[in-house]
Amino acid sequence: MSTVIYPSPIFGPVHSRRLGVSLGINLLPEDGKWCSFDCVYCECGLNAAHRAKLALPTREQVAEKLEAKLLQMKQEGPVPDVLTFAGNGEPTLHPHFPEIVDDVCRLRDQYFPDAKISVLSNSTQVHLSRVREALMRVDNAIMKLDTACEDYIRLVDRPQGHYSLEALTENLHRMSPHLIIQSMFMRGTLEGKDVSNVGPEYVNPWLETVRRIAPHQVMIYTIDRETPVSTLEKALPEELDGIAARVENELGIPCSVSY
After folding, report:
1. Which end of the chain is flanked by fewer CB atoms within 10 Å, N or C?
2. Taking the CA of residue 70 as centre, how many other CA atoms within 13 Å lie in the half-sphere pointing to its CB?
3. What share of the chain is helix, strand, coil (3-state, %, to 5)?
4. What is the pLDDT of residues 56-108, one digit of tens each?
């Protein structure tokens, strides 16, 4: 099993399926994972197998390394489409996430004012007002919602601590319409259980929850790299296309697909 552990605090640029030329901002340690989920499909592997031993990068380190990289890109290219908070876990867990967002906005405006700022988040910290307010200051707050079934989330996404789908839905709605919902659809089995979430028993309640949250965009995707659990499979293109069509036709929300 291969895993992807990203350098910290800056990595790339890389070409993102959804975002274009993306310069990564990793607020987590560079030697392992730091996440409030333990998703069985995570490209970084399972938490227990990749426990970080190093400290989180400081706010000052992030700003220093980011400015140096942006200056290099200004001189040598390429031009970034987006600066993306991503990496080895959940970026909003960093205690100085709101302040770092402000630093990134300032440096973006200085070096590449046309670039967008994105955050890839599992949504587990949106009950914190300081996190929600920081997410409202970025261009693309991309928030995870794989299903509207809490049992499925506990089996597949495996929250590390208290988790309430109802509370999460309410807090995501507080950000409406300034957020994007991102959802993983897949096929396969886990511990002998079918974890395919492409059927109507999962898609219908997911659509209703997306309606309640009222984002301005939806992104759906499927497995792209090797996963820690070998019995997981990609969703079929026609399944993803069908779900996207329902988002657009039934909810009136634009929906992009990454196969």
Report:
1. N
2. 23
3. 35, 20, 40
4. 999 999 999 999 999 999 999 999 999 999 999 999 999 999 999 999 999 99
Domain encompassing residue 244: 10-258
Banded model confidence at residue 112, pLDDT cuts 50, 70, 90: very high
Paired sense of beta strands 255-258 and 217-221, if any: parallel
Q: Is 4 domain-assigned?
A: no
Whether 17 and 56 have beta carbons less than 8 Å apart is answered as no
* Residue 46 tokens, joined: 């399972």
Could you tell me if residue 241 is left (phi over 0), alpha (psi between -120 and 50 degrees) or otherwise beta?
alpha
Q: Does 92 fall in a domain?
A: yes
Q: Burial of 158 by CB count in 10 Å (0-12 exposed, 13-18 middle, 19+ buried)?
A: middle
How far apart, in Å, are the Cα atoms of 113 and each of 9, 26, 109? 21, 21, 4
- H/E segment holding residue 207: helix 200-213
What is the length of the chain?
Answer: 259
Please give the span between the terminal C-alpha atoms of the chain, in angstroms, as a whole number. Answer: 21
Q: What is the CATH number of the domain that holds 187?
A: 3.20.20.70
The DSSP letter of residue 92 is G
**Calpha distance 52→36 (Å, rounded):** 13
Position 2 in a domain: no
Q: Residue 187 has which token pair? A: 């096929």
Angstrom distance (rounded) from CA 171 to CA 175: 7
User: Is position 46 within any domain?
Assistant: yes
- AA letter at 151: D
Is the link from the previous residue into 95 a cis peptide, with omega within 30 of 0?
no
Q: Specify the number of domains making up the chain.
A: 1
